[in-house]
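=== RUN LOG ===
request id: a7f3
mode: sequence -> structure
chains: 1
length: 307
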Amino acid sequence: MSRTDDDGIPVAGLVRRVPDLGALELLLAVARLGSLGRAARELGITQPAASSRVRSMERQLGVALVDRSPRGSRLTDAGALVTDWARRIVEAAEAFDAGAQALRGRRDSRLRVAASMTIAEYLLPGWLIALRAQRPDTAVSLLAGNSAAVAERLLADEADLGFVEGLTVPTGLDAAVVAHDRLIVVTAPGHPWARRRAPLSAGELASTQLILREEGSGTRQVLQAALGGLARPLLELSSTTAVKASAVSGAGPAVLSELAVGEELSARRLVSVPVEDVRLDRALRAVWRTGHRPTGPGRDLLGLTRG
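=== RESULT ===
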């Protein structure tokens, strides 16, 4: 028999399988502070309550998340992976809350943003939180997709401001560079590439099947250009997080933004593989329809990206 809420509406199974935001915030605090006690104090709860919440999460997910010892608390390998996913959820919740608060406000200002996946996942949440502090009455809607989809949204007047990761500015759009990024080749520690000393050549990279983003993404566009269009997909996935998780699982090597893999590299869940004679640098750009430079909250968001 399915569960229902107080109004008799069925509760989806996903709600029962995913820990609540408070539990995810606790896990992030343990990862950052290295102590369950310090994490509990930061969140204003008792240590027994924090321990109970961690155990409840572990039962819910069916995996051990935290190793506890007199020297502190350390995430298990599974806990480190869950923490990375938790961070995305908490950041999305903060962005959601920023939009919800604006919707409850005066509603006299609205900004429609379209962003490619890497920027949407790793840069935009911070920019939107800063914009909320500056413009609390602005309601922001975010449409995330690959760089080609962002251009389509802008040209169809379904977005006021966009962010893309490709090599060129799509036709019909003006642009400004807001950041620079570099793609790197990564693989799980058990892969033969993780132990090699010599850098990969362009030929080796082009002849190897890789875990890649889908066609139309800025990441794929940069790699294809660097390899003369010869990149070979082992898997094609539609999000940076999915590509990263597949690489961590040992499915094969992947090419990802440096922005996306810092924690995995630090924790040795992924290893960076050097490459020679392959240009994988790229500019991250804000884009808008030609002749329609952003004004109001769009102009303010653009300014924050350069801060």
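=== NOTES ===
Residues 13-86 form a domain with the Arc Repressor Mutant, subunit A fold (CATH 1.10.10.10).
The chain has two domains: 13-86, 109-307.
=== END ===
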